[in-house]
């Protein structure tokens, strides 16, 4: 007898089915919002700023995630166009979501007069906790899992709780809970971010780069375990390179099956490697060329505001100081006009 699996439908309202997948994604977005609002207070940013960013960013992320997935599955969706809109059945790509959110965020942040990298640094933990929680939507849907594995490996070797092991029994065969691996990797990255973001060595833009580098490292190794990877036909040397980089994992894991009809290179695995390299180059280039002149803990000011740094003061104190300087400047102008009169 197969273990009882979870119902992907949480509840119904009339004929409307509310899926756990959407609820879990919503909880991830809410947790991310709360983190950003709390950190934003240190820099004098209002909760409304992040709420509006979320309201614009989430739809953009969903559209980007779905388009990314659909483009790589176009042979299917060309014949089933209405299925493009069935995101509650799964089929969204995290890198597409990130692209969509960043494009939207760039224009929104710039329109408010802030520097893009300063705000993305604050949002980095929000993105990680959103992914950490959101992956459990894949758990409920029994999707995005890895290759076949023995039940004893999950229970006795990895000591995974029974409710997860049971859900990983798909049609009588147990699979790697890759959603869990990725969720735990995101949790570890979140803890590291909470530690390093208070350190003064961190420059503007580097916390966000740490996030994408950290996530992409984990994604590179976890992606190869999956059996549903988006893929393309690349040169044999590239496939061999990716396999060689992944080879240390063979001591414990085996790669998931990749249908040769899809290709020989996993798209997300290659993209993860490129993002890691790009992130490292970004940090080194800005440091070497002197472009990384702001620290993460420096106050965030709008374009046109004057910043007067004071040694050993906190970010919140520096933000207040900036506001006081701006107000004082305005008062001086008014007094000057009165004197002239």
From TrEMBL:
Gene source species: Cohnella pontilimi
Keywords for this protein: Cell membrane, Glycosyltransferase, Lipoprotein, Membrane, Transferase, Transmembrane, Transmembrane helix
One MF annotation (Gene Ontology) recorded for this entry: phosphatidylglycerol-prolipoprotein diacylglyceryl transferase activity
Pfam families reported for this sequence: LGT
Transmembrane segments: 20-37, 49-72, 92-109, 208-225, 270-288
Name the UniProt record assigns to this protein: Phosphatidylglycerol--prolipoprotein diacylglyceryl transferase
Main localization category: membrane
Membrane topology per record: Multi-pass membrane protein
């Amino acid at each position: 007898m197969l273990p009882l699996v979870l119902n992907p439908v949480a509840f119904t309202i009339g004929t409307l089915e509310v899926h756990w997948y959407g609820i879990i994604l919503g909880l991830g977005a809410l947790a991310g919002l709360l983190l950003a609002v709390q950190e934003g207070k240190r820099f004098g940013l209002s909760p409304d700023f992040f709420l509006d960013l979320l309201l614009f960013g989430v739809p953009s992320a969903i559209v980007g995630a779905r388009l990314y997935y659909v483009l790589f599955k176009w042979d299917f969706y060309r014949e089933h166009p209405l299925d493009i809109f069935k995101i509650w059945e799964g089929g969204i790509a995290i890198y597409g979501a990130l692209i969509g959110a960043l494009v939207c965020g760039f224009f929104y942040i710039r329109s408010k007069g802030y520097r893009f990298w300063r705000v993305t640094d604050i949002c980095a933990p929000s993105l990680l906790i959103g992914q950490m929680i959101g992956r459990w939507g894949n758990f409920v849907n029994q999707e995005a899992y890895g290759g076949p594995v023995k039940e004893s490996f999950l229970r006795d070797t990895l000591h995974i709780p029974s409710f997860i092991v049971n859900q990983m029994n798909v049609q009588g065969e147990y699979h790697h809970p890759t959603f869990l691996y990725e969720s735990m990797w995101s949790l570890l990255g979140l803890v590291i971010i909470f530690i390093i973001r208070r350190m003064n060595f961190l420059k503007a833009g580097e916390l966000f780069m740490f996030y994408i580098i950290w996530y992409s490292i984990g994604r590179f190794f976890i992606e190869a375990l999956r059996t549903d990877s988006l893929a393309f036909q690349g040169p044999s040397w590239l496939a061999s390179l990716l396999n060689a980089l992944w080879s240390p994992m063979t001591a414990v894991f085996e790669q998931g099956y990749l249908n040769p009809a899809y290709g020989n290179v996993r798209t997300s695995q290659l993209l993860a490697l490129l993002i890691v390299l790009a992130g490292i180059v970004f940090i080194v280039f800005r440091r070497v060329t002197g472009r990384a002149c702001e620290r993460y803990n420096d106050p965030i000011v709008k374009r046109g505001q004057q910043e007067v740094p004071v040694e050993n003061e906190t970010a919140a104190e520096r933000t207040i100081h900036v506001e006081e300087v701006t107000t004082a400047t305005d008062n001086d102008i008014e007094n000057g006009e009165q004197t002239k009169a």
